[in-house]
Design brief:
Elements lengths: L2 H11 L20 E3 L8 E3 L3 H9 L8 E7 L4 E6 L2 E7 L6 E10 L5 E9 L2 E2 L2 E3 L8 E6 L3 E10 L7 E8 L15 E6 L7 H6 L19 E4 L8 E4 L2 E4 L5 E4 L6 E9 L4 E10 L5 E4 L15 E7 L3 H11 L10 E5 L6
Parallel strand pairs: 1-10, 5-13
Antiparallel strand pairs: 2-11, 3-6, 4-5, 6-11, 7-8, 7-10, 7-12, 9-11, 12-13, 14-17, 15-16, 17-20, 18-19, 18-21, 21-22
Length: 353
């Protein structure tokens, strides 16, 4: 399979899988802001069928069978498709007077163990409140435990601000996953461009997404995206111990490294905890092609914007809002060799020191 096709398949596979600073502790989201859904209280569709897992073999050529799906499927009334070099990409379009987006959160669990997932939605840099369609309780997230060898579909409604950022991120936090699930290299979130106002892809914007790079210029082992990882004081990769199914850094985590990539871009870095507290730590961080980017963690204001006892994640994202569409258009016009819009996630693991 050629590299370009592999990249497109990786992007499609991600479908199967997501402010303000100086918070006071009593203003932070906590346990009471989680909607803990159950079959007794809400209308939830349960099944023993695995429709998405069954079709995954048609999407991805892989010798390893998929065993779980965590997906957000927007209602068709919001979905639009754009053809890019004969591949279909989905974005959302929200009517100008609408204040919510509806759809289904789908979980499929073809394993012998339960799967507990807490799902978040973000509009741009902010958490978007969500509720089950038959509920009146708006919360920061929805948590549900999927039984072994079963699937479930939750009808949800997500609050939407037409004047806010035009992108929606879905982050299904798997609380029963392997300890290294969120170490930076795995696909953990999915981001939609959402058109809720008129948009114009200017020549200047299109030019910013174009490059003379070709697939022949890229080394076989090169990264297509600025994948994050942690470094210690000596700027060496952090090593971990596994304690009670939790990764514990053997030494202090001091730096965030973003892998070198064969093109220029810029990223925003946000922190998100497992209650839904979000803060923009740093915006418009320049990444120069073929150079690693190393950022000092102490420069980030982390503790004041998250709960002390929470799990914490850094979200690294580029090509914001209409830049996602410009990225697709440049690809379709063959002004770049692959899709470069990216949203990576890495957990800030606790340290033994």
């Amino acid at each position: 399979m050629n590299t370009y096709k592999s990249l497109i398949l990786v992007i499609l596979t991600s479908l199967l899988l997501f402010s303000c600073s100086n918070f006071q502790s009593d203003q932070l989201l906590n346990e009471k802001d989680i909607l803990k859904a159950n079959n007794n209280q809400y209308e939830i569709q349960n099944s023993n069928e695995f429709n998405y897992l069954s079709s995954s073999s048609e999407i991805v050529d892989s010798s390893d069978a998929f065993t779980q799906v965590k997906a957000f499927i927007p209602d068709e009334s919001y979905t639009q498709e754009i053809l890019v070099q004969n591949e279909s990409f989905v974005y959302l379009k929200v009517p100008i007077n609408a204040n919510s987006i509806t759809g289904q959160v789908v979980y499929e669990n073809a394993t012998k163990e339960p799967m507990k997932v807490r799902s978040f939605f973000m509009q741009g840099n902010n958490i978007a409140n969500v509720k089950l369609s038959d509920s009146t309780d708006w919360k920061s997230s929805i948590e549900y435990e999927v039984a072994a060898n079963s699937s479930v579909s939750l009808n949800v409604e997500i609050k939407w601000e037409n004047t806010g950022m035009q992108e929606l991120t879905f982050f299904p936090l798997d609380q029963t996953s392997e300890a290294n699930r969120y170490e930076g290299g795995s696909l953990s979130t999915y981001r939609f461009y959402v058109q809720s106002k008129d948009v114009d892809i200017s020549e200047e914007l299109l030019e910013s997404q174009s490059t003379d790079l070709t697939m022949n210029d890229i080394e076989e082992e090169a990264n297509f995206f600025p994948v994050p990882s942690w470094l210690n004081t000596d700027k060496e990769p952090v090593e971990y111990d596994l304690v009670d199914n939790q990764l514990i850094a053997k030494e202090s985590i001091e730096f965030l490294e973003l892998a070198k990539i064969p093109y220029n871009t810029s990223v925003d870095i946000l922190i998100l905890d497992d209650f839904g507290n979000v803060n923009l730590l740093k915006d418009d961080v320049s990444i120069s092609k073929n150079e690693k980017t190393i950022l000092e963690l102490s420069k980030f204001e982390i503790e004041e914007s998250t709960q002390n006892e929470s799990r914490k994640f850094l979200l690294i994202t580029n090509n914001r809002e209409e830049e996602i569409l410009a990225d697709l258009k440049a690809l379709d016009l063959k002004q770049k060799p692959f899709f470069t819009s990216y949203q990576g996630l890495i957990e800030l693991f606790p340290s033994a020191e």
